[in-house]
TrEMBL record:
The chain crosses the membrane at residues 6-25, 37-58, 64-84, 96-115, 135-161, 192-214, 220-238, 245-265, 271-290. This is ABC transporter permease. InterPro entries: ABC_transp_permease. Keywords: Cell membrane, Membrane, Transmembrane, Transmembrane helix. GO terms for cellular component: plasma membrane. It comes from Roseinatronobacter bogoriensis subsp. barguzinensis. PANTHER family: ABC TRANSPORTER PERMEASE PROTEIN, SUGAR ABC TRANSPORTER INTEGRAL MEMBRANE PROTEIN-RELATED. The keyword Transcription regulation does not apply. It holds the Pfam family BPD_transp_2. One of its GO terms (molecular function) is transmembrane transporter activity.
Amino acid sequence: MILGSINPAVLMAALMVAATPILLAAIGELVVEKAGVLNLGVEGMMIMGACVGFIVAVNTGSPIMGFIGAALGGIALSLLFALLTQALMTNQVASGLALTLFGLGLTALLGQGYVGITPPRTPKLDLGPLSDIPFLGRALFTHDIVVYLTIALVGAVWWFLKYSRAGMILRAVGENHDAAHALGYHVKRVRVFAIMFGGACAGLGGAYLSLIRVPQWTEGMTVGAGWIALALVVFASWRPWRAMAGAYLFGGVVVLQLNLQAAGVRIPVEYLSMSPYLITILVLVIISSGKGRSLNAPGSLNKPFHASS
């Protein structure tokens, strides 16, 4: 076992990369749940974004077009969920699970001809002298632009929910949809837009996996990232900055277990591979076993809205 071979700066840099797709999906789902909707189809939207983004990037030669295509793919799948739950009033949990299964199956078909193909490279962001700072330069300032835009998105969502009028309306819809409707707000319209935002973020998270983190297409390559994102929303008590901290915690565990394997730690590989998911479950158990006020769940979460005539 050679633990001295693990470089802390490289470890931190890899942590940020590993956390980015999960954070993107989690921050989108956080907004959806703040509007009172529980979408368990995050995994399906992520894999759709990974597949569509990869296909578009390969055929256009542009990673930017790939990310745009991924966002649109995630939105398309989210609109299917919105149709089922907001127009046809089907059960949100069942619809979300069906969305995940549908996404996994459809992408397995669409991606058949793209296995083994390398996508166009996404360049690193040149931050000049910042990248030359000892330790911090390697750890924080050598990433692609998506990493930094994701952090900015977390801040934007925090500001939107806390200070903007639209964000306050969205929170009102999520807390008590009947009261919001009585005040004249269009509950279903607000929820559809929130669902679309969540779909776009999940699609972008999936594209980050297939275009940057693991630059290739593999069937089912999200391997549970969408479920982790759902868990992170609860871990964060529906707060954006906590979601980022949770995503970085999970990313750190993922990267650490890979580095421990490479360093020759005498622990079965299977135990190390399952450790991120075990820690996620442990965190959820700890959070759920606390006092009720430790949670910040929206009052109308997973409750269908029936407009009065």
